[in-house]
Design a protein that fits this description.
heterodimer, A: 129 residues, mainly beta, 5-stranded antiparallel beta sheet, 3-stranded antiparallel beta sheet, 1 helix, 8 strands, globular, B: 382 residues, alpha/beta, two-stranded antiparallel sheet, 11 strands
Chain lengths: 129, 382
């Protein structure tokens, strides 16, 4: 029997602290650059596109669709599905798909964010809508 | 300014071991260094440049000291499995600029004997580590999307393994010498969808080394002359999550740079060493390098097209990472070594490409489905 999966607590840093604070309230944040208008993920102080420092936090809808995934059939904690989700707001991010039948995942499937506990801030995961 | 023709590969050595519990990692580096120096007909005292990557215990300072080198140029560029392809390009730059005249590049390690230390993490750690990206599932994600976008099939991927196995049967050092069929690949257990066990490379101990030098010194030595005529390097990541596309790699940038510098096209290439951590790695690289159109890699690799003496593009005639070895989970240096063997006419007679005068060695490093580097080297028989 595989051991239950225990997720590492985010270490955090001054640049990303607001993200993890919001996660504790169940809010999923992305960053948007007010100079070029582009959203990005994971959050940076300086926009990775135009290099402006005018980036602001924005609450994401937490909704998106599966860009791709792969079901790891074996691991010390059992099977898990890693993938990339493209958020409604635009940015794509790496995640695991949880609380679902992993064999039925499909590219293009609609998903939404769910937080899972760690010893620190909760971590964002995605589950089919 | 170009490195075209300014550096020659005068020495190569691939460690015959595939399992080395009785040796240290530093020792393996020394053994491959000795092998390459002797292959070139030089001595250790001739080495004035040294290149190593993350597999070298402690990095440059302890390695240069351990090997007893006295060098005037050093480079520890670390880009995973393609580090050594980048080292070759950088060695050529250093030689062209007069910063060194005889460079040594080494790779060695023992992932089959023991677990490798975790790779260093960057700013993404908190946002990615928990999700358990491994080589298998990262490349699985690429294959999944490639199949979705282009209709690539598991059968087509299997042909890449079949071709590698046809070559490996003639390599006495190969870990997997049995010729396999498409059905064998499809019947092997699923590891991380859609990649099966036989879509994956082997895990092996071992290593390899190269000696890179000036045209003048190379001509004074006894080995057939092989020179670097084009090099490219590039990096690709999710870039803030914008326009994610995992169906292509940084090879779309490193490849054209190398071909342009060399003044040749994919059609001219007689032999291809293509990094084969997984079957999908090869398929995507062949597309990205321009051997076929994007999305047509599946058709291109089918029906033995990569088998020497059978198909149009003989690849990885040593059996590659899929069958022969993948020292330190890094395939970059063995890609260069087999390309040099082909250009020297030293490949196994059963897989030697007739009149092989132009070859490519290409690799990626990191995780194709997350972030990675790529490097392309075009090599010519002089």
């Amino acid at each position: 029997m595989a051991e239950a999966r225990k997720y590492p607590a985010p270490q955090g840093n001054p640049e990303t602290a607001p993200f993890w604070e919001a996660a504790k309230q169940g809010k999923f944040l992305i960053k948007r650059c007010t100079a070029c208008g582009e959203p990005h993920y994971f959050p940076r102080a300086i926009c990775p596109f135009c290099f402006s420092d005018k980036t602001v936090w924005e609450e994401s809808s937490g909704e998106g669709e599966i860009y791709t995934f792969s079901l790891m059939r074996k691991s010390p904690t059992g099977p898990y599905a890693i993938g990339w989700v493209t958020l409604k707001e635009g940015p794509s991010l790496q995640t695991n798909f949880v609380d679902c039948e992993l064999e039925k995942l499909k590219i293009g499937q609609k998903v939404k964010v769910v937080f899972k506990p760690t010893d620190g801030s909760p971590l964002p995961f995605f589950t089919p809508v | 300014m170009t490195i075209k023709g300014k550096a020659y590969i005068a020495g190569i050595y691939e460690h015959p071991t595939r399992h080395a519990p009785d040796k240290s990692t530093a020792q393996l580096h020394a053994e491959v260094a000795k092998g390459a120096i002797e292959d070139a007909g030089l001595t250790k005292a001739d080495i004035d440049g040294y290149f190593c990557a993350g597999d070298a215990p402690g990095g440059l300072w302890p390695m240069v000291d351990y090997l007893g080198l006295r060098v005037r140029h050093m480079d520890s560029t670390e880009t995973g499995g393609c580090s050594y392809l980048i080292h070759l390009g950088h060695a050529a730059e250093a030689i062209a600029a007069g910063k060194c005249s005889i460079a040594l590049i080494t790779l060695a390690g023992k992932p089959r004997t023991g677990v490798m230390p975790p790779r260093a993490q960057g700013a993404e750690a908190d946002f990615e580590t928990a999700y358990g990206a491994t080589t298998h599932n990262a490349y699985g994600m690429c294959a999944m999307r490639h199949m979705h976008d282009y209709g690539t099939t598991s059968e087509q991927l299997a042909w890449i393994k079949v071709a590698a196995s046809h070559h490996a049967q003639y390599n006495p050092h190969a870990m997997l010498k049995d010729v396999v069929t498409v059905e064998d690949v499809l019947n092997s257990p699923m590891i991380s969808d859609p990649l099966r066990r036989l879509d994956c490379c082997v895990v092996s101990d071992g290593g390899g080394a190269l000696i890179v030098t000036t045209p003048e010194i190379a001509r004074s030595l006894k080995k057939p002359l092989v020179r670097l005529i084009g090099h490219g390097e590039a990096m690709k990541g999710p870039r803030g999550g914008k326009d994610l596309d995992l169906t292509y790699s940084a090879g779309i940038w490193s490849g054209p740079r190398a071909f342009e510098e060399a003044g040749v096209t994919p059609k001219d290439i007689k032999y291809a060493s293509i990094y084969d951590s997984f079957t999908i790695t090869v398929l995507m690289q062949l597309e990205d390098l321009g051997f076929c159109k994007k999305g047509e890699g599946g058709k291109f690799v089918s029906d033995g097209n990569l088998i020497s003496g059978v198909g149009k593009l003989p690849f990885n005639t040593d059996g590659g990472g899929l069958c022969s070895n993948h020292p330190v989970n890094r395939g970059g240096i063995t890609k260069i070594i087999e390309a040099v063997r082909q250009l020297r006419g030293e490949a196994h007679p059963k897989v030697q490409v007739p009149n092989c005068d132009l070859a490519i060695a290409h690799g990626t490093g990191g995780l194709l489905g997350v972030r990675h580097a790529a490097s392309t080297c075009i090599l010519e028989r002089a």
